[in-house]
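User: Some background: our group keeps a shared notebook of sequences we're curious about, and every so often someone picks one and asks for a predicted structure to add to the entry. Today it's my turn. The entry only has the sequence so far, pasted here. Could you supply the structure so I can complete it?
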Amino acid sequence: MRVAVIGCGYVGLISAVILTKEGHQVCAIDSSAHVVQKIRQGVPPFFEPNLKERLDEALDKGFGISETLPDEDFDVYMLTVGTPTVNGVQDLGQIKRALKLITNHLAPRENFAAIVIKSTVAPGTTNMLEKVVAEALPRGRFGMCMNPEFLREGNAVEDAELPDRIVLGSSSKQAIDLLQKMYQNSKCRKFIVSPATAEMVKYMNNALLASLISFSNEMSNIASTNLDIKFIDALGIVLSDKRWQCKDDGSSVPSVASYLKPGPGYGGSCFPKDVQALTSYAQEKGVSVPILEAIEKVNSEQAVKVLKPLVDKILAGEVLRVLVLGLSFKENTSDVRGSVSYPIIRHLLEVGADVRAHDPIAAEEFCKEYSFNSEIIIKDWRSGLQWSQAIVLVTPWSDYIELGETNFYKGFLLDPRSALLR
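Assistant: Of course. Here's the predicted structure to add to the notebook entry:
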């Protein structure tokens, strides 16, 4: 396969030499004559373990390097140019100039090509750039794809040779087919998603890792107020929680990943009081804890935020009668302390809904805890299907999972925990 890589920075050069190693005909393009000259001489413009050896191997296999696009056809044009942030806004100047170069190159040709954005860009950028390209080329001549990179500096060559995942975001089947062929030697899982999803994956990936670092630093700052606390020991014990470990069944995803599933927020007797208590302790010691404060703030607002699609319908007069399913703070317990069903029901009543609720175990305890009249409770949730115009599935008891069957419920179904997607 013929591949043009635009940009010989960190991602571009490493991607180009590994694609060459895998048997593709690759030409890398960089506007810097100095960079091009160094690469032709087998000298990477930056240090990365094993890159020098891979570059030498690639040059021996015919890897090309140029300041301009050669006058030949390519199947894939891969953009790996910079997307710096200027005054808080992402600068797409380099990408747009590279796209101009590609469209001018493709204009007199007849072959279909995949144009791949490998640079990190904000969600929606690839679709926007596709419209820019479509102003110069017929849509049948190209397909846009977002293909984020996950290279770790210091391990980048290994990551490129043995990726743990490949994400292809495109609405073009032809482009996906080309990229599947380009990556056919990679045995890792390949995710075919929308361009915006692929763009979001990269940001989520980095934001999560950055959050973990900042969270650990914030915890360390709290621990430093008491010399008897050995923070590394405490962290090691936390990470010994079996939820951080991969299962014996060969699953590569530890169960702690379930805590990343979005929903209406956490509840129960532990999380709310412990986050509040640790926040108060830190503040008393004069330690700034913006992450802990944000955790509590985000959680307190989430139950109402997930209701917005339903509230919009209530305020528009489209829905009045709402059935809330699940009152315990999680399934398989009668504990209603901190249950997010309480702020959900309260908000639904505030916006004028007629609300009924059901829980297979915790209904009586819920009414007692939150001073609700028992008349709000229905004993058989299926009897409320015809009465209700909308359902909010809050606590995913197994009894309710049949709601996910096609055409089981005719009204508006809100599933903020995505329980029916399991």
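Suggested note for the entry: Residues 2-195 form a domain with the Rossmann fold fold (CATH 3.40.50.720). The mean pLDDT is 94.
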